Amino acid sequence: MKQLIIINGPNLNLLGKREPEIYGSQTFDDYLNILKSKYNKVKLDYFQSNIEGELINKLQEAGFSYDGIVLNAAAYTHTSVGIGDAVKAIETPVVEVHISNTFSREAFRHQSYISAHAKGVILGFGLKSYDLAIESFIL
Ligand code: CA2
User: Fold this and answer.
1) What's CA 20's distance to the chain center, in Å?
2) pLDDT tens digits in sequence order for the chain, 139 residues long
3) DSSP 49
4) Residues with CB under 6 A from ligand 1
5) Active site includes 117?
6) Which residues touch 96 (CB under 8 Å, ≥6 apart)?
7) Domain range 2-138, CATH architecture
8) In the chain, what are the domain boundaries?
9) Ligand 1 center to residue 1 CA distance, Å?
């Protein structure tokens, strides 16, 4: 059985509770249950933190044992050399995911410190971006 982990960055714990016009009205916990039943042949773990160092620790911990990492580093995508370095350093392939189309938003969201080290990038499909990332690991 493939082992995947979704790692979500800062403020994604507010999904479904704030800014539904951008990020939708579903909480991530509800969506995670849908993902788990849809991809029941996969062992799907989940980690969320608002703290950069905790995200780096989790990438290092998961990055030598899991088959794939689905990473939405949220705002740290655009600022964190440390998270980019961690993605580069680990062995497990990382698919970078964003709910919104970051290229149709402010210019500062066009920069990613992760993309160059990711296996691929999926963005702009709402929460479906996570489905597509999981599928990229199982197809
Ligand atoms: O579109 C995405 O998935 C983002 O990674 C989301 C980040 C944003 O900084 C990136 O540019 C694009 C923001 C996540 C914040 O999520 C919230 C959810 C509900 C309410 C407020 C924030």
Assistant:
1) 19
2) 999 999 999 999 999 988 888 788 899 999 999 999 999 999 999 999 999 999 999 999 999 999 999 999 999 999 999 999 999 999 999 999 999 999 999 999 999 999 999 999 999 999 999 999 999 999 7
3) -
4) 11-12, 14-15, 18-19, 23, 72, 74-75, 77, 98-100, 102, 109
5) no
6) 71, 72, 73, 77, 112, 114, 115, 118, 120, 121, 122, 123
7) 3-Layer(aba) Sandwich (3.40)
8) 2-138
9) 31
